Amino acid sequence: MPQTSKKQYYASLAMLGCLFFVFGLVSWVNSILVPYFKVACELKSEVQGYLAQFAFYIAYLVMTIPASALLSRTGYKKGALIGLWILAGGALLFIPAALSRTYNLFLLALFTMGTALAILQTVANPFVTIIGPIESAAKRISIMGICNKFAGILAPILFSAIVIAPQKPRMDAIAAGTLTGAEKEAALDALLHGVIPPYLVLGVVLFLFGILFYRSSLQDINPAKNAPATDEGRKSIFAYPYLVLGVLALFCHLGTQALSVNTIIGFAAESGAGAGAILPWSSLTLACTLLGYFIGVLLIPKVLTQQQMLRIVTCVILLLSVLVPLLPPDKAVWCLVLMGIPNSVVYAGIWPLAIHDLGKWTNLGSAIMVMALCGSAIFPLVYASIADASGSLHTAYWLLLPAALYMVYYAFAGHKINHWKKA
User: Fold this and answer.
1) Packing angle, helices 6-27 and 137-159, rounded to 10
2) Domains along the chain with CATH numbers
């Protein structure tokens, strides 16, 4: 990264903070879209409902490498402009989806938005890592996380206030089966039409923000050219074990985070803890995540190193992962809420450990790391499949345990592996 003044540095952080706010705004509203679609689109199973999550996050797996190739051609700032405009297009796809009441079109809209975020995450994370010293990268990522999770807290609150609250009596009537025939069809139309105004506004705002970001003073980067060439003897990106193992650790982390945020509304309702409270649970979990980010900013690196903090929080996640399926459901739901605190620091801890000293492979390495966000697609779908098979949302939370165990392994040992052992 070219040398910059403090003023330029903080202006760049502010612009990146706005970008991470956008990520949170469009990503975390999915936690409340699932139960909304289940009613409005008359979905019959848990798996069908979580296809909305799957369509959104699977784009990270499918589209991140093409996104990296695009950025190599366009540069990062122009790539961000393209990504924000694609994100705007995805938001606007909600309009024909709502007018036609076509769930598959909603899924296409969500996949389009996920594709845009694959581009934008590939842009944003190297910016945040490279813009300052690697020793404080976790601190900067934590600051970005605060912006992301603050938007994540606002997103379900705004969606509920704008879309769900005015439609709640209609949703309850549809779910209870008290409406039939033309009356039911009219209610379903009205229910889905409620998403049109907010997503129309969101599309316009994202289009304009793309222009603002592109014209900002944020300096463009090309990690493949600017990063020092280290260990050129390695023939591929997969010759870096700490990166490969880090991708899997990030996959597990994002999967467990998705379970704690995106499944909690349905689980709380089933357990009785969520009676009459569809909104607060995901926001409570994200509020705990926000608290965790503040803790990370305060403690890293002055009190604890990135590695020490990662070890502590992964052990806490492991403990909570055991307690969730063992405790009674009305108490287990609070473990999911509290999981937001340690989860907040894991991303910031894994990323710099996995991405350091990649030299010419930095751009591709960052793209592969972003692919791990597909954990947010796969884990909820596996969870829903287990829940459908077992008949219990509670039992399905055993899925947390193997993921937590692997994160502990990476925090203590995996990130230290610099070369694969030869047979």
Assistant:
1) 40
2) 6-216+236-416 (1.20.1250.20)
